[in-house]
Amino acid sequence: MKSPAFTLVELLVAVAILAILASIATPAIGSMIERGRSAKCLGNLRQIGVAVQQYVSENDYRFPPIETVPPSLGNEGRSALETLGPYGINLGTLTCPSDVAGPDTVALYGSSYHFSPVLQDELASSVNIYGRRGIFRIPNVGRLTVCTDYQAVHASSGRLGMNVLKADGRVMQR
To answer: What are the sequence ranges of the domains in the chain?
Structure first.
């Protein structure tokens, strides 16, 4: 008696079914991977927020002066790594896993995140914004942003968004 074997038609049907299942699962897998990257980025921002709060508490309640533009001649600012490094921040924490330019952005700016120039060396209790019409005092710094992604790279419900670290330590997706 012959052993049962698959016919060519049965094999082709099985392969077709597997191909259909794979094509259905591929977008879902891509979405899960991006959600994981976004969660890692939110975790990085949360760690940066803790380091900023530690810096503020040890430096006369002032926000850290972090250089936000590429280094140039005569530019004396410190990078995020130099400023926040003593508080447990490393290059991995300053790199967003979804950053499109990746190493290029980190090499140029020192971080995948853009630090707000408004908070540079300002008192944490109230921030002054200097404009053409005078000085504006912001009493609730929770509205101000410490840092964000350089670009909208995180897919959320069909659109691209950015992760944001607020001055009061909250982390959110925008």
So the answer is: 8-173
